[in-house]
Each structure stands twice: as C-alpha cells, then as structure tokens.
Predict the 3D structure of the following.
Amino acid sequence: MTLLNKTAVGTAHGKIILIGEHAVVYNMPAIALPFMATTTTVTITSIEGETFIDSDYFTGYLSETPEALDGFKTALNNVCVYLNVSAQGLHIDVESLIPPERGMGSSAAVATALVKALFNYFEADLTDKIVKRFVDTAEKVTHGNPSGIDSTIVNSLSPIYFKKDESPTSLPLDMDGFLIAADTGIKGQTKEAVGDVAKLIQSAKDQAKNQTISAVNRIGQLTFQAKDAIIDNNVPILGEIMNQTHRLLKDLTVSNRQLDTLVQSALKAGAAGAKLTGGGRGGCMIALAHSMEHAKKIASELEKAGAIQTWIHPLQAEVGEAFHE
Ligand code: PMV
C-alpha cells in the first residue's frame, strides 16, 4: 500500500456521565464532563485503492470491518455522500486512549474524530452542529436509541447540563473534590441495557405500575439537585445524590456484580459517593473524594478490588469552550 502525501487529522475526547444516564433517554436532564485524560485522534492519509482502517480494534479493508464498526462505516459513508466524494482511497488511522465499550464515549469520540478528519481532508467547512448530526446517525446504528449526550460531550471542552433535543448549557465546575473513574474490565452493554430499560418502562405502563417510571423521574430530580450541589460546591450532598442514583440504576437493572463491588469498596474507602457511569452492566464506575490524597487512596482500593484501570479527575474544570449549536 502506498501512502500518498495528503494527510488530515480530527480529534475528540472521552466523557464521564456524572449523573442522569438512562433517564436522559426519557427527556430527563443529565450532567456530563469532558474527560481529557482519554483522547482519540483519527489521521487520514491518501492511498491508492480500497480504504484501509488501522486501529487497535480492527485492522483491514473497509469491506471487511466487523459489525461493531457499522456506526463508524455509517459516519464515513454519510460524510462522503454529503461532500460528494469517494469513500475509497483513504488510509484511516485511529489512535484512541478511550477504552472501548466502557461507558466512556469511545464510539461517539471515534466517530466525531473521523467526521472532523474527513472534513479537514476534503477541506470543507464544518460546525459542531454538523458533526453532531453525523455522529448521532452513527450512534443510532451502534446504540439503538441514543439520547445524544455522548455526541455532544465528546466534542465539548466544558462540562454540560444536557436535555435531549435541547441546546446543552455549559456548567461551571469549581468544586473541592476529585472524581475517580474505575474500569471493571468488562465490556459494557449500552444497547442491551437501554433496550431493557425501554421494555421495563413499557411493561410498567401496560401494568399501570409506576415504580420504573418513578425511578426514571427520581433520577431526573436528583440530577437537578446535583446541579445545585455543584454550584454550591457541596461535596457531601453530591456524594449522597450519587449513592441514591446508583440504587435507582440498580432498580433499572443496569448495574452488575462487578460495578456493585467497586461501588462498595469506594464507599468503604471513605468516598463521599459512588455510582456506575454510562450504559452499565460492565464498563466504569465513578467515586467522589474530598482531596487528591483521598482520591489516590480510593483508586488504590478500587484496584485491589479488581478495577483494571483508574483515573483521577479534578472537579475544577477550566471552563473551556462549550459545544456550539
Ligand atoms: O455507555 P455510553 O457511554 O454509551 O453511555 C450511554 C448513556 C445512556 O444514557 C445509557 C444512553 C444515552 O444514549 O444517553
């Protein structure tokens, strides 16, 4: 394969959903943070012949990609149709530090970086709104019924308060606290978890049982309170809200044994609060600590309890540029 001269790059980053996952699909609010410790870079170089993908997940020709890359392929084809260019003759290199299928926004970040790289490569103007449109379509293929939170936050430099079908607002974050994110090492199952919550809600409606519906509404109320706790720099209250939310997510059947074990060990190590993050049934959890020293202790306990990787994220975000409509 001969690499030709032309090269273009696109980037995006991972995300942490602080609160509101799953309920956000049902028009409740959610709060998410850009997770700059995990980034994705897509580099496109011209080649002769069929488009070739080079990534940790898959290396080979576009015509041979596994089903898991159908969303990626959708983004590629849709952008090329939109720009009226060929989807062939591209060498697409994907370098991602975001662990895939762990509730950290990997699929949305890779699709975002790809769309940005393609527009750069074909020297076309791009707005955040256009990126999101292509990524949302790709995410529908990957996840079934996405709320759009992932496609927004992986391209936002600011934390956001998000509601489906509304413009996100950026949320100033200046708390005396640190988040620890821990990876169970087990692939999350966002599509299945979102599908099962939909079935629970449907059967709750059919049986006039409102327990599931009230769990979703309660997560919405807690998210609203979490926003106030963030603005008031109230770490203990935010921690308690996280604990209550984890219990509600368990009621929605989206936790699992490994996530519950890590949540328990974080609390035992003195965390102010802990919960799963993202789609659940695997993937990652988060815990809240009062200081960096405390965060390091919790991270070490989480690793002893089975986490394969941990990250510490300050809750003093520089307010970067929010997503632009
Ligand atoms: O697992 P992730 O990173 O794709 O997070 C999904 C968040 C959900 O609320 C479960 C689904 C959604 O589209 O909002």
Remarks:
- The first helix runs from residue 70 to 83.
- Residues 319-325 have pLDDT under 50 and may be disordered.
- The pocket of PMV is lined by residues 17, 21-22, 24-25, 103, 105, 143, 146-147, 149-150, 188, 190, 194, 278-279 (CB under 6 Å).
- DSSP finds nine helices and eleven strands in the chain.
